[in-house]
C-alpha cells in the first residue's frame, strides 16, 4: 500500500483526543505524525499517551515540518481563519473543525488561500460521511414519503456548568448555533439539495455565559414552501434527532449526528400510511470515514463529496441565524453566487 497521509494536529482539544486522532489511527490511509500545543510539555504528554512520534511547542513548528502533508485544526472558532491560511501557505491540506469560521466572509478567505496554494480544504462536519444519509436521500428521491413538506431537527446538551468552556466565550465564537445548530441546518440543506431563502431565529443569550446563545429555536425557509424548524442548545436536556415529513409518510432519524456502535437504536425509521419499517445501513464511525475520504482526495486527487463552496453557503445561513436572533427579525440569506 502507498504511504499513508501524514497528519499534524494543531491543538490538544477534547475533540482531537477523543475523536479525530483515534479516527486517523484507525484509518487505513492516515497516520498522525505530529501534534502541537502552545505548551511543549502538554504536546509531549499527549504524544506519549497517544503514540504520536513528534510533539511541538508551537503551531508554527508543526507547519514547518516538511513531512506533514495535512493538518487538522480543532482550535477555538476565532482561530480557524488564521491557522487555515497559515497552513495553506505552508503547503498543507486542511481539515478544519466546524464551524469553519466566524462568518461566511472569513470562510471564503480561508478557501481562497487554500485554492491559491493548491491544497485541499474541508470542514469537519463528520456525520455527513455516514452512508445512512445517502440512504435517506435515496428514500426521499424514490417518492416513498411523497413530496417533502417540512423537516424538523434538534441538537441539545447541557454543559452550562462548565463556565470556562471556550464555547461560552463570545469573542472566541461561542454559542449553540455555531456549535450545534450547524448540524440540523447542514443536514436539511443536504437532504433537500437546496439553499435557504430566509431565516427567523429566537435565542436565549445568557449573561452567565458571556452573552452567547445558550439555546436557539429557528425557522429556515427553503424554496417550494418547505421549511426546517430546529432547536439547538447547550443548556437543555440532551437529544439529537431529525424528522422529514412528506405527503405520504415520514422519515425518523434517532441519534442522527453521533458516531455509532452496535448498541444504538435503528438508524432510519420510515413511516407510511400502510407500514412502518426500520433500516440500518451500517455501523460505521463517521470520523474514520471522514479522514479516509479526505486522504483519498489528498493522495489520489478524488473529489471531496462536500465542496468548499458548501462551507460558504452553510456559513451564510449561520450568519443569517445569528443576525435574526440578535435583531429579532426575519433575515434574508445571501443568495449571491459563490465564486
UniProtKB/TrEMBL annotation:
Which UniProt keywords are present, listed alphabetically?
A: Oxidoreductase
Domain called GFO/IDH/MocA-like oxidoreductase: residue spans: 133-252
Is Cytoplasm a UniProt keyword of this protein? no
Q: Name one Pfam family in it.
A: GFO_IDH_MocA_C3
Q: Which residue spans traverse the membrane?
A: none
Highest taxon, organism lineage: Bacteria
Q: Does the keyword Plastid apply?
A: no
Q: Where is the Gfo/Idh/MocA-like oxidoreductase N-terminal domain?
A: 6-122
Provide the family line: Belongs to the Gfo/Idh/MocA family.
Q: Can you say what this protein is called?
A: Deoxyfructose oxidoreductase
